[in-house]
Structures are given as C-alpha cells and as structure tokens.
Amino acid sequence: RREAMELVDEAQRLLAKTNQAVKAMGKQIDKAEKKKIKGECNALQKLLMKFRLDKVSEDEVEKIRQAKLNLESSSEKIRSFSGEK
After folding, report:
1. Residue 8 neighbours by CB under 8 Å, 6+ apart
2. What average pLDDT does range 61-68 have in this prediction?
C-alpha cells in the first residue's frame, strides 16, 4: 500500500510539472509532440482518478507505473527546457 501511495504521489507531481512546462513552453512545442504529451497526461490522470487505496490491485499499480514512465520519457525534453526536472 505504501508503495502504491508513493507512486500515486510521484505521478501527481509529474502531471503538475508537465502541465506547467507545457504552458510555459507554449507555441515553442511541436504540435504533434504536445498532442502526444497531452494524451499521456490524460491517460495517467484517468488512471489516478480511478485509483482507490482500499481496492488497489497490483495490476492497477503496474498500469499507473507504466503510464508514469511513458509520460516521463515523452515530457523529459520540455521539462528540461522549462527548468523542471
């Protein structure tokens, strides 16, 4: 359970930082890249909205972990340009 909560906290922080970076970069981001990042943000957000600690399964945790990794890799470039890590 603790691992699941830490993962959810990390994912929420990543979402916030990524959204902030996307806003800060504005039109400097390629439209296709921005669309991909927004799609991955939405996918992770949906998983987090469904997450319930009392009913968490290992499958749900793994889906969140994978979505977080996808978003980290696709948004790494814009987060580094905007000063976020």
Report:
1. 48, 51, 64
2. 94
DSSP state of 54: G
Residues in the chain: 85
The C-alpha angle 31, 35, 36, rounded to 5 degrees, equals: 120
The three-state (H, E, C) secondary structure of 11-25, written as one string: HHHHHHHHHHHHHHH
What pLDDT is attached to residue 77?
79
pTM for this prediction: 0.81
- Whole-angstrom CA distances from 4 to 32, 46, 50, 70 are 32, 16, 13, 18
Please enumerate in sequence order all residues whose Cβ is within 8 A of that of 24, keeping only pairs 6 or more positions apart, or say none.
82
DSSP class of residue 23 equals H
